[in-house]
Every structure is written in structure tokens, then in C-alpha cells.
Amino acid sequence: MVFIKTACTINIMANWIEVSFHVDGEGAEALCDVLQRYVHQGVAVEQAFPGEAWPDEPLPAGPLMVRAYYPDDSQADERRRLIEEAAFQLSRLYPAIPAPRFGVVHEEDWAEAWKKNYHPIRVGEHILIKPAWAEVETVPDDIVLDLDPGMAFGTGTHPTTQLCLMACEWFCRPATTMVDIGTGSGILAIAAAKLGCSHVLGRDIDEVAVGVAQENVIRNGVADIVTIQHGSIEGIVSSARHFDLAFGNLTARIILSIIPDGLQHLIWPGGRFIFSGIIEDQAAEVIAALDTIDLEVQGRRQMGDWVMLITTRRPPA
Fold first, then answer.
1. What strands, in cross-sheet order, belong to the sheet with 243-249?
2. Which helix (H) or strand (E) is 82 found in, with range?
3. 157 vs 121: CA distance, rounded Å
4. Is residue 147 part of a domain?
5. What is the pLDDT of residues 124-174, one digit of tens each?
6. I need a labelling partner for 163 at 20 to 30 A (CA). Which of 51, 63, 252, 315 fits?
7. Is 29 within the bounds of a domain?
């Protein structure tokens, strides 16, 4: 996820080198584009200091943590040199990008190392994101999302995911159908089901994410409502299925790349499509492109540098 939707899906070998940066949103996306050339299977982006998002209060900005990993093998020194050089070149365009920080992560420490930084989070009015291994106190109105993200994107700490969860509270209603493109850990699909949607489809091109999402769906007791599938949007568009509501917590680049695939046909005319994972500077380009396929922006919300667009599909002329 999103959000740079290149989840850190790591097959543990022996030791790994972790490279990390504290940056703003614009710097995060630039770093992700570069790091993917040198690291193993993707880049994870999370809010550096997870907090809570509450209604009627300013949304927190704050720095982001960009993390990536590569094997500690015979090529490790060369990879480090290339990453340091790439980060230096980027810092000339984005002065806020710092020098990378490197550390060794041992195989036996991996699972516990990242969990130490993943804590319960409250988002919106009622949503409580609970790590599967954590004990938390709840109140009667809490909608608890019990998650183990495993190696998939979607912990709820990233601003784009928090924005989408807030949109779930606004728009997920009984008898509403929803599709989540790039479902990752399944966090949005599970939230939609617990907020009353009658049928939810979560779809992802990453087989690891599909497995993680399926496990989380079962863990949360919503397997009768949520279906998780492996694949792109093409299979949905070609089936002529339509939903009342759709979410795409993706990067601007990915959104622009799938517009020609019939993105608008995932929802009924008059339905809502929510897009997140968009850097502020890229929002105008995305809005213009969505307008060409009759997805009209009806609302916009922002957290730091990240923008969420709420669109509706215009009825046929």
C-alpha cells in the first residue's frame, strides 16, 4: 500500500539491511521511485509518529517513515553505495530528504522488530485499529478492526489509509456494495463490512496481500460479507459488475495508469469512487484525468501532503 502501494513483502532469508528515511510526502514518493531499483520487493511508507484522527479536528501532518530492505549479502556494500548516491541526488531536488539510515535486521528479530512500532490507533468517530497481538480497552461504540498486516500494505498508520477509513464512516451504509482496489491487508474492506455494507470485494495483484487479507477477513468474522480476490480491475470491468462505492488507495501514477482500463465502470452512475495516496502537487493532474472518464470530484480532504478525492460517476448524457 500506497501510502505508496508497494508493500514491503519480504521473504525472510538470513540477515537484512534496513534503509530508512524520515521525510515529507513529496519526498516519500520520490524516494519510493528510486529505492525500488535496489531493494527487495518493495518499499513501505508509514506515518513516522502514529497518532489519532478525530472528527472536527485538524488532521495531523508530521513526517513519514520510508523503509526498505535488501539482503545482507556480497552485493550489500554496492547497494548501499548506490542508495546513498541516489539519495544525495534526490536531496538536490528535495532539500528535506536526509541521508539514509542503515541497520541490520536479523531473521529471528524481524517479526518482533516491526511489531514494536505498531500500536492501537483510533481513527474517525468509532474506528479502533487493533494489532492482532495487542490487548486494548474498548467502549461500546467502537468498531474494532483486528489486524495482522503481515507482509501486506495496510496497518492504518499511513495518512492515506486513515483518510480512507474516515470516508468509510461517511459512506458505508446498510445495503451498500463496495469494491476495494489494491486491498492490501484488507483493512478498508473489513471496515466497510463492519460499517454495514452488504457485500464487499477486495482485490489485489499481490498474492501475498491476498493471503493476508483473507486471514484478516476470517479473523474479523466478516467472511460472509467480504470476498478477497487476486487480480486487476480488468476482470471486474469485463464482468460488467457494478458497485455503489469504490476505494482506490493507490499512488497518482497507478491511478493514472488504470484510467484507460475502464475504471469508472466499477461503480454505478451516481456511485462514489474515493481515491487516496495522491501527493498534493499531483492532485490537479489526477482530477483532470478522472474528469475525462466522467468521475467528477465532489469533495477533497487532506492530511499533510496527502490528498483524498471523493468522486461521483456522472450519469450518461
1. 226-230, 199-204, 177-181, 243-249, 267-279, 306-313, 295-303
2. helix 76-93
3. 8
4. no
5. 999 999 888 888 888 899 999 998 876 556 677 778 889 999 999 999 999
6. 315
7. yes
